Amino acid sequence: MRHPTDGVLRRLIDEPAGVAETDRRHVADCPHCLAALASAREDAAVVGAALSADADVDVPAAWARLSAATAAPPVRDRIPARRGRFADLVRRPAAAALAVGVVLAGAGTAAANDWLPIFRTEEVAAVGLRSADLVALPDLEAYGDVELTGDGDLRPVPDAETAAAESGLDVPEVDELPAGVTGEPVYQVGGQLTATFTFSAERAARAAAEAGETLPTPPPGLDGSSVRLVAGPGVAQVWTTSTGAPGLVVGRAIAPTAFSSGIPFETVRDYLLSLPGLPDDVAAQLRAFTADGSTLPLPVPSDYVSTSTEDVDGERATVLATRDRTLAAVVWVADGELTVVAGPLDSDEVLAVARGLR
Q1: Sequence-ordered strand ranges (E) for 174-217
Q2: Where does residue 303 rank: exposed (0-12), middle (13-18), buried (19+ CB within 10 A)?
């Protein structure tokens, strides 16, 4: 007997009109599917709480809360102490540490006192990390100053033409929406965002001492040197379901690039990866990436999210799906632009949208 997919069961909750009558009849008469539907309703309750949707829903913030909620363990396996763990992680400065870890995976050289490009994203590849590794990551601000400049926040715009004009990007056109996703999208635009990390030997030594560790001697010239990561601008289209929850997100942005100042970048990479507090397996994975500065490591909590690779219009794409199958996404880079398709859908559904973009 072929049972409806988890995506169909979820659609029975969010958008029942989008479910075929044959699937409805099957679920109504199938104890297995009824039990799975009950579990999906529990997950939907958590998603609803994460969204807190109302008439003035902030779609980008809601999507972030949705992603945090669906990246956590299924409701039936979750205990209260762990419910906010992933969401808290995303907000911690450790997320910035991992962003610089992204740069550390690729290599290049920088002349003293000049900003030189040392990283340009040409493809994305997943780095599987356990939740314990993610939580154990040190805060980057413990080792120096982190300065964010620019305007990366998404703001609504009235239509695709305005989004294209303000972002300078071609807005992806969706060929066919997945079943249950209807209507017109909300368009959003974000500006360029720059993150600059300046290493401080004094601050790093203090952080190591507080952790009961000894800081390795910094190489000459590292103290006060900086790494700068630049991303954006970007544009997003968000389709919502009848409940107000995001049903599909299609986003595109200028892919991240990085620059180094004051010291050869290999020196920065090797030293930062040797600092106490960075889990050994995390450092090992980052060192394993190609040294040509073209592969953007994408940190993934591997105990909650599975990954695979697929082809999208001749480009190597990374597919992510929560293990409870409540959220899927596909991300790839082409011509210096990073594109993502995501939603509470099956992997096949987000891939179909990705491959049909015009």
Answers
A1: 186-190, 193-199
A2: middle
Q: Under the phi-then-psi rule, with left for phi > 0, alpha for psi from -120 to 50, and beta for the rest, what region is 232?
A: left
Residue 233, preceding peptide bond in cis (omega within 30° of 0): yes
**Number of domains forming the structure of the chain:** 1
Question: Dihedrals φ, ψ of 189, to 5°?
Answer: -135, 140
Residue 355's nearest CA partner among 338, 341, 343 is 341
Considering the domain boundaries, does residue 39 fall inside one? no
Whose structure tokens read 């609504």?
156
> Largest alpha-carbon pair distance within the chain?
72
- Domain range spanning residue 142? 95-355
CA distances from 9 to 91, 113, 138, 305 (A): 31, 58, 40, 20
Q: How many CB atoms lie within 10 A of CB 28?
A: 10
Is 45 inside any structural domain? no
Residue 144 falls inside a structural domain: yes
Quote the CA–CA distance of 208 and 212 in Å, as a whole number: 6
Instruction: Tell me how many degrees the CA angle 264-268-272 measures, rounded to the nearest 5.
Output: 170
Mean pLDDT by 10 residues, the chain (358 residues): 68 64 75 70 48 41 41 31 32 35 35 56 81 68 88 88 95 91 92 90 89 88 87 92 82 88 71 76 67 72 89 94 89 94 94 96
